[in-house]
Amino acid sequence: MPDILKQPLTPSAPSTGDALIVRRDLLVACLATLGILASLVMRFIFRSSTFHYEIPLLVVLVVGGGILWLDLLRRILRGNFGADLLAGFSIVASLFIHHNGTHQYLAGAIVVLMLSGGTALEAYAIRSASSVLRALAKRMPSVGHVQRNGSLVHVSLSEIHPGDIITVFPHETCPADARVIRGHGSMDESFLTGEPYGVPKTPGSEVLSGAINGEAALELQVLRAPADSRYEAIMRVMRDAEQRRPRMRRLADRLGAWYTPAAVLIALLAWYISQDPTRFLAVLVVATPCPLIIAIPVAIIGTVSLAARRGIVIRDPAVLERIDTCTTVFFDKTGTLTYGRPRLTELLPADGFDRQELLALVAGLEQYSRHPLAHAVVEAAKREAVRIPQAIDVSEPPGHGLTGTVNGSNLIITGRSKVPVDIQNHLPPIAGGLECVVLLNNRYAALLRFQDEPRADVTSFISHLGPQNNKHKMSRIILLTGDREDEAQRMAQHAGIKEVFAGKTPEEKLEIVRSTTAQHPTLYLGDGINDAPAMLAATAAIAFGANSDVTSEAAGAVILEPSFRKLDELLHIARRLRSVAMSSAVGGMALSIIAITLAALGLLVPVAGALFQELIDLVAVLNALRAALPPKELSHI
Fold first, then answer.
1. Tens of pLDDT along 31-68?
2. Could you say which of 75, 370, 459, 501 has the lowest number of CB atoms within 10 Å?
3. Is the model's pLDDT at 86 over the cut of 90?
């Protein structure tokens, strides 16, 4: 179990290293601000001598600049020559260059403020962008009610252990994954499962942590500690999103790879030709690529925030850059192209059994399961106005179906392959769709058949996927599924997908995606645990829904409200981010090049150049903030 799951449920859990960097840069920014203000006050209000009003600026350069340079040196030793290296050169140059007998400390102090303030702004924006998800963490209780030595005691979540007996009072939130041992009621699990209805609970029923209890108090036995619960696993998505620095800032480093040496060369030439060292400093100051250092992260964080407000969790901001490069897209079937909510289409009773009675018995047991097929049975019973009885001794071991006692009869609902061979020989032939076998008191009673309905917007989305959403066009669309060939072909024909790989194991999915990704950038969309390996092999991966924490871990983005309209929004959001980020970066750099020319010609002194660079930064950042504003239309389907 990863250590991060052992952390307490807090609204924010940034890593220690990131937190120290944030505090460090905030302190440096505050020091630079106070130093600049103190120098200006001493110079223009108290009319202090040059020596005295330069002291605060010297402190800023030596202390604040020294701290920033230590960080730059560590990155240089690792071979990381970032776009902010020019700022470091400017800080050092300002210590040694004079102009008309005056030090250039003020210009250097302004650069210290720009560099530290930009990093702090980026870190603050990362934390702010996930406020939507942090709101989920706040709903988790801080204590649980545990039976100890015959009495009910209130303990912190860290003191709840597997096997403990806990009580969840009406309208409280369940603190751990558990199984009901006493009481009947219902729980709202919609924020975890996406199903907008209360799930009935009876002895034997499992309860997810984070589920909200209904009107009746329930006693439960804890299955997993809160730190290992389903809720906490989903919260890990939030923590990862907060801790990951936006890797699309690599764009800044790529642009800086040619911009930085070019600016240094121009500065040296200006110094050599004019024999004036202040021109060298002036060029470096105005060349400081703050549009890259600040504007791109602001655009990224604005996009992450916009996506969160649209029900899309960006776990890894790099996915926003990668999506726009993908030319091949893989779709899983169940839960991705379909709703993952099958309908009961046939109930075929065996000889001697009544259909209505069987439907009532099966619904009585299925109402305690969270399986999509269970919901389909219960809905069918409600449509036919069948009275649904209560069940007891409910058990649902993974991979073995559902068992329980209904009206005194032992009921088993399982798959065709799980029943004895002599029963398999009497089953109706396999047809299209999903199916379950019903055993009543160990006798074959019925066969249930289901159809999983395709999403309403799947056809329109796939029909416009290539020409609308990607400048390279997603020229290859593939259905990759573990389902049977006939089911996969039926879905592909409905959706308009030409290429199908059916009946594939997770290992086979992984190999197909891996080999394809080696040739072309790939995008993978899925919702199940068996999708996770293939997701990791794809260039970019998107999870439909947070029902599988493993899939969410593997995906760069999670669509909490699965629909192709939301997916279309994500594709447009990603493409818009690239446009906004490039316009901020390239536009800011273009203005900086104009300023570099003026500085090289001696028309901009270092301090004026620093102020001009601040104006460029302001324009670039204001443009970058557009990424957080929703356009009039985010989807075209």
1. 999 999 999 999 888 887 877 888 999 999 999 999 98
2. 75
3. no
- Tell me which residue of 107, 53, 36, 234 sits closest to 609, measured CA to CA: 107
d(C-alpha 404, C-alpha 396), whole Å = 9
- Residue 23 CB neighbours (<10 A): 12
Candidates 29, 70, 43, 38; CA nearest to 57 is 38
Between CA 445 and CA 440 the distance in angstroms is: 6
Taking only the tens place, the pLDDT of each residue in 185-203 is 888 876 555 444 577 888 8
d(CA 578, CA 568): 16
Q: Where are the alpha helices (DSSP H) in 244-371?
A: 250-274, 277-287, 290, 296-309, 318-322, 355-366
Here the tokens at position 47 are 């009319």
pLDDT value at 478 more than 90: yes
Contact 180, 204 (CB under 8 A): yes
By CB atoms closer than 10 A (0-12, 13-18, 19+), residue 253 is middle
Q: What is the DSSP letter of 557?
A: E
* Residue 542, beta-bridge partner list: 525, 557
CA–CA gap between residue 138 and residue 126 (Å, rounded): 19
Q: How far apart are CA 506 and CA 433, in angstroms?
A: 21
Question: H-type helices in 408-457, by residue range?
Answer: 421-424
Q: Who's near 509: CB < 8 A, 6+ residues apart?
A: 480, 482, 501, 530, 531, 533, 534
Nearest residue to 289 via CA among 251, 317, 245, 244: 251
Residue 158: CB atoms within 10 A of its CB come to 12
Which run of H or of E encompasses 222? strand 218-222
Helix axis angle, 296-309 relative to 105-129, nearest 10°?
20
- The Cα 77–Cα 257 span in angstroms is 16
CB-based contact 563:339 (threshold 8 Å): no
**SS3 for 471?**
coil
In sequence order, the β-bridge partners of residue 480 are: 501
Query: Which helix H or strand E contains 434, and what residues bound it?
Result: strand 434-440
Phi, psi of 609 (to 5 degrees): -65, -40
Q: Which helix (H) or strand (E) holds 507?
A: helix 506-517
- Of 548, 547, 546, 522, nearest in space to 535 by CA: 522
Tokens read off for 542: 């998107």
- Do residues 392 and 402 make contact, with C-beta atoms less than 8 angstroms apart? no
- Chain-centre distance for alpha carbon 324: 17
| DSSP-based three-state secondary structure for 143 | strand
Residue 111 vs residues 61, 82, 265: alpha-carbon distances, Å: 9, 16, 20
Distance CA 509, CA 237 (A): 24
**What separation in angstroms does the CA of 415 have from each of 53, 166, 499?**
83, 34, 29
Residue 467 burial by Cβ neighbours in a 10 Å radius (0-12, 13-18, 19+): exposed
Q: Does the global pTM surpass 0.90?
A: no
Q: Which two tokens stand for residue 608?
A: 């004026």
Q: Do 588 and 616 meet the contact criterion of CB atoms below 8 Å apart? A: yes
Give which of 104, 106, 107 is closest to 96, Cα–Cα: 104
